[in-house]
Structure formats: structure tokens, C-alpha cells
Amino acid sequence: MKILLATKNTGKIKEMNRIFSGSGVEFIGLDTLDHVPDVVEDGRTYHENAMKKAMTCYNVASMPTLAEDSGLEVDALGGAPGIFSARFAGEDATDRENNEKLLSLLRGIPREKRTARFVSVLCLVVDGTPHFFEGEVRGHILDHPRGESGFGYDPLFVPEGYSRTFAELGEEVKNRISHRAEAMRRLKDFLKEKLGKQ
Question: Class of the 2-197 domain?
Fold first, then answer.
């Protein structure tokens, strides 16, 4: 079964094919389409954004399509940055700028009140019907970045049960315990069942 992954990121496509190796599922990217639609992520939830991306690309490609939306929710900030995580410090903000804005907003807030969670929502559109798979991981935000691995807010986020940030734990551990990993496991179970029924 071929699934279009709504991304141009070749690293993500390789990672997905590695995760699903031997499952009978193969992911291809948007670079395989003649026309790649522009999708404005203007939804109010991860579900809305993921579905808009998946449905838009599905309508162009007419094949099963998977999209994701994810973000960091900090309790002391009322759940911000949330769906605006990637553009927290501005539309073209770098990871560093987003991290700096987050730290400035949390200045003076004690460790026990810096709780947060990463959320991932996958939307798979098959035969025009969306299916959602969610994952989350809880933890807390440090007052300064640590570690070189990962991306986004990884250098600031320490998952529950660990003393190191996602950026210090490295890709292998992160990909086992992350919000995205949990959502992927649910997707994998769904596809296994679906392929088994064909």
C-alpha cells in the first residue's frame, strides 16, 4: 500500500519508511506530485490543520494521504504556544527564536509550574474518509537549553521519568517515547488491521 506523506522533507519520508519497514506500507513525498498545493494552516486545532493538509493533498493525488500537526503546550502559558509552536516568535521564526520567546515568557516561573506536553495528531485520509491518531508526552520546561540533537523545543523539554532533554536523549530514545511515536504506533496498528482485511 502506497501512502502520500504531506511533506517535502525527505528525512521524514525516510524515517517513516524505516519505521514501517516490512509492513507492506510505502510512503512517498509531495515531490512525486506534478502540482503541490499550498496549504494555509489556519485551523483552530491540530485535528483541523492535519485534516486540511491531508484532505487537500488527497484531492490532488487521489491516493491515501497522511499529514501531521503537532505542538508544545505549556501549562503556565495556558496551553501556548500550541498550534502556533512552529511560528511562536513570528511567521519565519527559527527554532532558536521560538525557544528564546518561550524562555522569556517563563522567566521567574518556578520548576514545579513549568509543566508541559508535546502533542501529535496524524490524519490519514483513505477513500475520502479521515482517520485520526493522537499521541502525547508530558514533561517540563528547563530555564536554559541543553543538548545538540533533535529540533524545535527539544533542548528545553525534559520528558517525565527522565533527567535529560529530548535533545540530550538523542533520536533513538526520543523516537521510542515521543508524542509522535505514540501516534505512529496507533497508525501502525490501524494499517496492520486494514491490510490484513484486504
Answer: alpha beta
Write the DSSP assignment of 55-87 as a string of letters: HHHHHHH-S-EEEEEEEEEEGGGTT-BGGGGGG
**Which residue's C-alpha cell is 493533498?**
57
pLDDT by residue (tens digit) across 84-143?
A: 999 999 988 999 999 999 999 999 999 999 999 999 999 999 999 999 999 999 999 999
| 3 state DSSP class of 176 | helix
Residue spans per domain, the chain: 2-197
Supply φ then ψ for residue 117, to 5 degrees: -150, 145
Task: Measure the CA–CA gap between 28 and 135, rounded to whole angstroms.
Answer: 23
Closest CA to 63 of 102, 25, 91, 113: 25
69 as an active site residue: the answer is yes
User: Which entry of 69, 92, 143, 154 is annotated as an active-site residue?
Assistant: 69
